[in-house]
Design brief:
By secondary structure, this protein is α/β, with parallel strands linked by helices. The chain has helices at 3-14, 61-65, 73-86, 98-101, 116-122, 147-150, 162-165, 169-175, 210-218, 223-227; strands spanning 20-25, 28-33, 38-42, 93-94, 108-112, 127-132, 141-143, 156-160, 180-184, 201-207, 232-238.
Length: 239
């Protein structure tokens, strides 16, 4: 299954006749729909060419969702943030992914993306392998191209939702076949039909106060300030 294309189809279907109310840009893109639901997605800002004219974003959610297929970093993040807003659901479980994955002591765990809080929680419990696009001065960190060889040797694979933004997710899930897999972080869409058969746990962020989060993103506040505020909740869906 192509996860990205499945998410776009979800957005195009769910977003029919749904208008976008407003958008905010920062380290994450924030999208709020006219029904009040909102979503976030990480932006690879180093790939944004600020001197270029920014794309004209559509006003309807169905069209915006298709931007996830783009190679323009702003469009990709806008598309995914829109899909996250459309994926609003009330049957979530409040909590953190690690509470449900609960890796065995001594097991091999791949963490795709340097998720600092997870590194701190796992480094003394399991054999942790962290894969990153950017060099990080840490003995646990391997370059992204080591994934091909090492991921199939893991027991657990935890990847961040940014793998959707950089379009590496389909290959990572192929390499993770037969493992316990979790997708985590504010960018993660809680769209179960896109991940059935390949993912065990989806852990994202549910925005409870769109007005406040819009203001925080507009002011350039870091995502951690939103995660730890009373304006959003960590939520989990078990597949």
């Amino acid at each position: 299954m192509n996860v990205i294309k499945t998410l776009v189809e979800f957005g195009k279907e769910k977003g029919k006749d749904v208008k976008i109310k407003r958008i905010a840009f920062g380290d994450y893109i924030f999208v709020e729909l006219e029904n009040g639901n909102s979503g976030l997605a990480y932006v690879y800002k180093e790939w944004v060419r600020f001197k270029r004219i920014k794309p004209k974003f559509p006003k309807d959610a169905a069209s915006a969702s298709s931007f996830l297929l783009s190679y323009n970093p702003l469009e990709i993040s806008l598309g995914l943030a829109t899909i996250n807003a459309l994926a609003y659901r009330t049957d979530f479980i409040e909590g953190d992914a690690l509470d449900f994955v609960n890796p065995r002591p001594g097991s091999k765990v791949a963490l795709i993306g340097y998720f600092r809080s997870y590194v701190e929680k796992l480094k003394n419990l399991v054999n942790l392998f962290v894969f990153e696009l950017r060099p990080i001065n840490n003995n646990l960190v391997y370059p992204w191209y080591a994934e091909e060889d090492l991921i199939p040797k893991m027991d657990y694979v935890i990847l961040t939702g940014t793998t959707l933004v950089n379009k590496t997710i389909n290959r990572i899930l192929e390499l993770s076949a037969g493992k316990i897999v979790a997708i985590v972080g504010p960018t993660t869409p809680l769209v179960t039909e896109a991940f059935k058969g390949s993912v065990n746990v989806l852990a994202g962020l549910h925005i409870t106060d769109s007005e406040k989060v819009y203001e925080m993103i507009s002011k350039g506040l870091p995502i951690q300030s939103i995660i730890h505020s009373s304006y959003a909740k960590k939520v989990v869906t078990i597949l």
